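Data deposition worksheet. Section B asks for the primary sequence of the deposited chain exactly as it was used as input, without tags or linkers unless they were present during the calculation. Section C holds the resulting structure in C-alpha cell form. Section D is free text for depositor observations; keep each observation to a single sentence. Incomplete worksheets are returned to the depositor.
Section A, Depositor: J.P.
Section B:
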Amino acid sequence: MSIEVARLEDQLLKMSIEGAPGREFCESISELARTGRFAQLRDVLPGIVYDELYARHQQDPAAFVVGWRMLAHEMQQGFIQHARQRLTSLTRLQQADSGFTPAWQEIQRALDGQQNDLLRAAFAIELLQMVEPAVVRATHLRECVVAAASSEEADRYLDEATRCYFLGLFTACAVMCRSVLEEAIKQKLPTTLTRLIRTRYRNTATLGNLLHEVNNNLLLTGIDGDFPRVANQVNDAGKKAVHQGLLSEDEARSCLQDARQALQLLLSQ
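Section C:
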C-alpha cells in the first residue's frame, strides 16, 4: 500500500480551510446585516458586544457588511498560518508587548477556546511534514540486537532517543543516548563495584564517572574492551549537547549509532 503524504497534507489543508473557526460566524454577521436582519444578533451575542456592533453598523452599513465579509475571507486564508503561530507561541518565550494582533486572529482565538481547532490543525500539519524526513532517518538504522537483556528503563531511554532522532530533535537525542548508557551500565556492574561507585560519587555518578570506573575494572566487570571507547564518543556528544549548543543531524545520528553499538558491546553476553 502506497501512502501519499503530500495528498494527506492537501486534504488536511482543504479540511482546515473549510472548517476555519470564525468563518461562518463572520459570514453570518455580514449576511444578517446585508439582509436587514441585524436585530437577530441580539439573542446570540452578549449585550455589550451587540451594542458595539450595532453602533458600527449604523455608522456605515455598507462598509460594515464588506468588513465582516473580508474578515471571513481572512480567517479562511490565514487559518493555517495562524494555527502555526498559535503552536509556536506555546513553545517559545513571548514578550509582553508582542505587537498588533489582527482582528480575525483575535476572533478565532476567542471562538476556538473550547474546540482547539487551531492547535489540532497545527499539530496535524507539523506531524505530517515530519513523516518523510523521519522515514529517511529511519533507513540509516538497523535493529539493535543484543545477547543479554538490560532493563525496562534502558529500553525506554533508547526508544525516546531514537524517536527524537526521527522527529528532528537532535540535541535531545544525544542527551537521551547518554541516559541510555548510564542506565545500562548500572544494570551491568557487579554488586561490589556498584557499592563502591555509590559511595565514591554519592549516588550522583555521571556517564563519565561510570566509564572511568568501567575502564579501570574491565576484568572485574567482564565488559568488552572496546566498549569504553565507543561509549566515550556518546558521552562527548551528550556533553556538547548540554553545554556547547544545538547538535546537527549528522552529529545526532553518529551519537545514536555509537550508543547502539555500545549497547551491543555491553550486552554481548
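Section D:
The chain has a mean pLDDT of 88.
Residues 117-138 form the longest helix (22 residues).
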